[in-house]
Amino acid sequence: MTDLCKKINEFGRAMGNASRYRIIEALLKGEKTVGELVKIVHLTQPAVSQHLKTLKTSNLVIDERRGQEVYYSVDAPYILGLLKSLTTDVRNRKKT
Amino acid sequence: MTDLCKKINEFGRAMGNASRYRIIEALLKGEKTVGELVKIVHLTQPAVSQHLKTLKTSNLVIDERRGQEVYYSVDAPYILGLLKSLTTDVRNRKKT
DNA sequence: TAGAGATATTAGCATGTGCTTATATATCTG
DNA sequence: CAGATATATAAGCACATGCTAATATCTCTA
Q1: Which domains does chain A have, with CATH numbers?
Q2: Choosing a second label site near A55 at 20 to 30 A (CA), which of A71, A75, A78, B56?
Q3: How far is the CA of A53 from the C1' of C1 (A)?
């Protein structure tokens, strides 16, 4: 499996879960703290933290601590790069 | 969950599974029969058929029977539409 | 430094998922 | 129509995954 494949696969795993997808959706509207996300997606704080961890491992989100709170936001350049690669692959497919 | 959300989520679920991702990859190189896919991804025939069923349910592939064989191919226009929507969403995000 | 607030981590459980084996359906050919 | 080939479906099992509850870690402030 090439590096790109692995990335796309991780991206899929992230977006394929409803909770994580809702987290991403929320983050697309602007950075949020864990506590804010908890209120938005209606999950417990540990559940949100766990999802954020997998999202971070897949490089889809960035975190930054400011005082007691940790702000999360989408890594847009990374995601856009992935989407572009994918789009190119589909465009260049062998037509039927 | 909006209609687009549901589609993207299904797309993610499809791409997030390694076997399904390999099937999509193979199909991007041109349409294939179930039997050909079995040889390529090294899964049993029922396993491949099951994956193809979920891919079809998510509208990512198209099937067409020709005699005894069924040919599968990616639904490129559909996928490209999804990727475009996703790209737009990420581009138009609220910057941090 | 003690306590409070915010987040992360761990363990455990219930459910979902992917695979296998067995069987059914469909299509062709003799 | 009978058998062969291609594909689909069903049942069952092992494992992965998402969630909860409990606890740990980190940071601020009095």
Answers
A1: 3-95 (1.10.10.10)
A2: B56
A3: 32
Residue B26 CA and nucleotide C23 C1' are separated, in Å, by 29
Question: What is the pLDDT of chain A when averaged over all its residues?
Answer: 94
What residues are paired with B74 via a beta bridge? Answer: B61
Q: Which of chain A's residues have a Cβ under 8 Å away from the Cβ of B28?
A: 89-90, 93-94
- Give B16's DSSP letter: T
Confidence grade of residue A1 (pLDDT, cut at 50, 70, 90): low
pLDDT confidence of A96, banded at 50, 70, 90?
low
Secondary structure string (H, E, C) spanning A1-43 = CCHHHHHHHHHHHHHHCHHHHHHHHHHHCCCEEHHHHHHHHCC
**Angle of CA points B56, B59, B62, to nearest 5°:** 60
- In this complex, the answer to whether residue A8 has its CB under 7 A from any atom of chain C, a nucleic strand, is no
- Average pLDDT score over residue span B18-33: 97
Residues of A in contact with B87 (CB under 8 A): 80, 83-84, 87
- The Cβ of residue A41 has, within 10 Å, a number of other Cβ atoms equal to 18
Q: Give B47-89 pLDDT, tens digit per residue.
A: 999 999 999 999 999 999 999 999 999 999 999 999 999 999 9
